[in-house]
Design brief:
This protein has about 150 residues and is of the alpha+beta class. The protein is built from 3 helices and 5 strands; from the N terminus they run αβββααββ.
Length: about 150
Amino acid sequence: MINNDEIKKQMEAAPEYDDVPAGTYMVVIDKMEIKTTKAGDKLMFAVQMGITETIDAPKKQDKRKLFFNRVICGNKNTEKWNDGIAIKGVITWIEKLLDEGDTIEFKNYSQFAEEVLDIYQDICPQILLKIDYDPDAFNPVSILAVFDK
């Protein structure tokens, strides 16, 4: 039995939802993987981050989640954008997490997915990131600094 009147009261008392605003945040990486898109027809690089500290945005953002997703297989093939450009952008982003001189390589999608998972499992639990987040930008998450936890 569902009490619709009670649900309506709860909804009226619930705070308004607002998106995480642009700003500088300290985050941990909760997930980082290569997976299929919701439609299941493309591959994408997907990162979920948890905000641990808000630097220049309202403090209420602490403990919220940020997401960075990039389709790496199934893009339109143009000079300005294609799968190769998308993959190179992901590699550049990931290499900011690595020690200087360490690299990630793309040989094929299976190998790349395994390498991304290895980096997530080996490195991400030990690091904290300072990022700029702009939900309206094509690259919503820019890594400013990487710290040991």
